[in-house]
Design goal:
The protein is an alpha+beta fold and 618 residues long. The protein has two domains: 186 residues, Penicillin-binding protein 2a (Domain 2), CATH 3.90.1310.10; 363 residues, DD-peptidase/beta-lactamase superfamily (Beta-lactamase), CATH 3.40.710. Helices cover 38% and strands 17% of the residues. It contains 22 helices and 18 strands. The strands form five sheets. Strands 2, 3, 4, 5, 10 and 14 form a six-stranded mixed sheet that branches. Strands 12-11-18-17-16 form a five-stranded antiparallel sheet, sandwiched between helices. A hairpin with a 5-residue loop joins strand 2 and strand 3. The longest helix is centred in the first third of the chain and has 44 residues. The protein is elongated, with a radius of gyration of 33 Å. The N and C termini lie far apart (99 Å). 42% of the residues are buried. The structure holds zinc ion. Zinc ion binds next to helix 14.
Length: 618
């Protein structure tokens, strides 16, 4: 009996403990998971609609619209809420196959059953209008308004860039983005992404059991308004840009035109170019693939990324450096001694100005020798190290050997070798002027970017300084400017030495024996310098110029790849046309214009975009 009683007692105890445990567990479950339950409950009644702001517009320097937005619709799905869907009817209405439906649905479910996923992107206004009034039948689906970039004219692709969908890296790096968002991928779209994108808002909507939005939740208490993206007011001259692209259309190369006094980029062309509208919308992926597989590399921005040997144009910077450190005087003459380095036939240069005009190689050989071996040290190797260090410092002041801080991504730095470079290559105290003399005429180890060459033209035009080349004048409703784009970078070289360079470059275009006569524009004092960038195939034709001579308004660098005949043949006349177009508004020399627009230098083979032979040494 007593045993029976104690057994019953134990049973009661177990029952009590069990009930207690169940309560505790239940309580815990509610405590821990209640927020999820609430969220789930919310999901069924509320919809958080992201309010996408309009991306900032882009204008040219004269207020011409370059980039704007067009409204499109993204069809979104919340898998958990899809119910009673007539799949066949749905597919027929929105115009997709059953396979696509399954694939998209699986993708959405994999991401989340409860959170909205992008089901179909960039539905045009017209397409959406076709099934808009059927949407109430598709429980779990809704549309979200988005905008697409539209490029007013098919120009300036390399400047404007493009936007693309965010990837996992973007999502990790910046919590602002959600899957399906767009982000600037190149050009100004990338550099100014944070200004252009604005700020998303959210609208909480109540949804009834028929998937209809029945109004704002709690009078918009939890809503936030989107903030529109800032507009960019660029420095580009759309007319000049378009004209330059027309001239370069059947060529490979690039054009960079800058207003010297301000550093404002007027035109920046990389040829071949492409229509920026190709990289918008649903065809973007296929077009991108096509462009990136193109042997002519249209996505490659030669103006900022290509690195070429500077050729003879470099002599201008050499002359200024040699004058400023006292290695030569304005009236120093050197014989055209072809035994030291090759040259063309011309009378000996009796001054720096003549040397620039005639582009005499031996002259710059002797000049560079005096810069590198100044006699500062007794030991020739130590002396060369001293000279090279000083020379390099001057080259950096010209903006060479470093990335210019332009407001575009992916800029190359070019190459100005230092002592460490030559020590690595030849060994310490085992190199001197005789080893590195080809730098004197813009060959050897030196590499420059076309942008740097246009900047060199600005420095001469300004008689000694430059302002960082840039593409955005100001942005946003308050016309905000970047202070860095107002600062002068001084070379520290005397202005009267630059006057010599200016006159030398004037002679190149105007004096007998000058190599750039084809850049001449009637009525405008064009100053320029021809160059040839050595290449494994046919050399590249290069011309750097500015105009007018006094108070210059435009500086231009033109590269035409694999165009035999040096800078004078192709790049000089093209520069002349660009200058005429910009300064006169219209090119009057129609015959010259036609000739260079139609003509294409023979370009059959894939071309080298980077000069690799010397660079490998690094
Ligand atoms: Zn010579």
């Amino acid at each position: 009996m007593s045993k029976q009683y104690s057994d019953r007692n134990l049973g009661v105890k177990i029952l009590f403990i069990s009930v207690g445990v169940i309560f505790v567990v239940r309580l815990l479950v509610l405590q821990i998971f209640s927020s999820e339950y609430r969220e789930l409950a919310d999901m069924q009644a509320l919809r958080h609609r992201t309010q996408y702001p309009a991306r900032g517009l882009v204008y040219d320097r004269n207020g011409k619209l370059l980039v704007y937005n067009e409204i499109v619709y993204d069809l979104m799905v919340i898998p958990r809420m899809v119910a009673g869907l007539d799949t066949a009817y749905f597919c027929q209405q929105v115009g997709i196959s059953r396979e696509d439906f399954i694939a998209q649905m699986d993708k959405a479910k994999k991401y989340s059953h409860y959170a909205p996923s992008l089901f179909m992107k960039q539905v045009t206004k017209a397409e959406y209008a076709r099934w808009q009034n059927q949407l109430y039948r598709f429980k779990g689906f809704y549309v979200q308004q988005r905008t697409l970039r539209i490029y007013e004219k098919p120009i300036a692709a390399h400047v404007l860039g493009y936007v693309g969908e965010v990837n996992d890296n973007d999502l990790q790096r910046d919590s602002y983005y959600q899957r399906g968002d767009y982000i600037g991928r190149s050009g100004l779209e990338k550099s100014y992404e944070e200004l252009l994108r604005g700020r998303k808002g959210v609208k909480v909507m109540q949804v009834d059991v028929h998937n209809r939005e029945i109004g704002s939740y709690q009078d918009g208490k939890f809503d936030s308004l989107p903030v529109e993206g800032s507009n960019l007011y660029t420095t580009l001259d759309a007319d000049l840009q378009e004209y330059a692209e027309k001239i370069m259309a059947n060529k490979r190369g690039c054009v960079v035109a800058i207003e010297p006094a301000t550093g404002e980029v007027l035109a920046l062309v990389s040829a071949p170019a492409y229509d920026p509208n190709l990289l918008v919308g649903n065809a973007r992926g296929a077009n991108y693939k096509k462009l990136s597989n193109d042997i002519a590399k249209p996505l490659f921005n030669r103006a900022l990324q290509a690195q070429y040997p500077p050729g003879s144009i470099f002599k201008v910077a050499q002359a200024m450096t040699a004058l400023n450190i006292g290695a030569v005087t304005p009236s120093t003459g050197f014989p055209c001694d072809k035994s030291v380095i090759g040259c063309h036939n011309h009378p000996a240069a009796r001054s720096v100005q003549e040397a620039i005009k005639m582009s005499c190689n031996p002259y710059f050989y002797f000049t560079y020798k005096r810069v590198i071996q100044q006699g500062h040290e007794k030991n020739i190797y130590k002396d060369s190290q001293y000279g090279l260090t000083m020379w390099r410092d001057y080259m950096l002041r010209f903006g060479f050997g470093q990335r210019l801080d332009i407001d575009l991504p992916n800029v190359s730095s070019g190459m100005i070798p230092d002592t460490a470079y030559y020590n690595r290559w030849y060994g310490k105290d085992r190199w001197a002027f005789s080893t590195i003399y080809s730098n004197s005429i813009g060959q050897g180890e030196v590499l420059v970017v076309p942008l740097q060459m246009a900047n060199l033209a600005c420095i001469v035009a300004n008689r000694g300084y430059y302002i960082t080349p840039h593409l955005v004048r100001f942005h946003g409703p308050d016309s905000t400017r970047n202070d860095a784009f107002c600062q002068r970078h001084e070379t520290g070289i005397r202005k009267d030495y630059f006057d010599i360079a200016v006159h030398g470059m004037y002679d190149v275009v105007h004096a007998p024996g000058g190599t750039g006569h084809r850049a001449d524009v009637p009525g405008i004092d064009v100053c320029g310098k021809t160059g040839t960038a050595e290449n494994k195939g046919a050399d590249h034709s290069v011309f750097v110029s500015f105009a007018p001579m006094d108070n210059p308004r435009i500086a231009v660098a033109v590269y035409v790849e694999n165009a035999a005949g040096g800078g004078g043949t192709w790049a000089a006349p093209i520069s002349g046309l660009l200058i005429e177009k910009y300064l006169k508004g219209e090119v009057q020399r129609k015959d010259v214009e036609r000739q260079y627009m139609e003509a294409a230098p023979c370009q059959k083979l894939p071309l080298a975009h980077k000069v690799k032979n010397k660079k490998k040494r690094r």
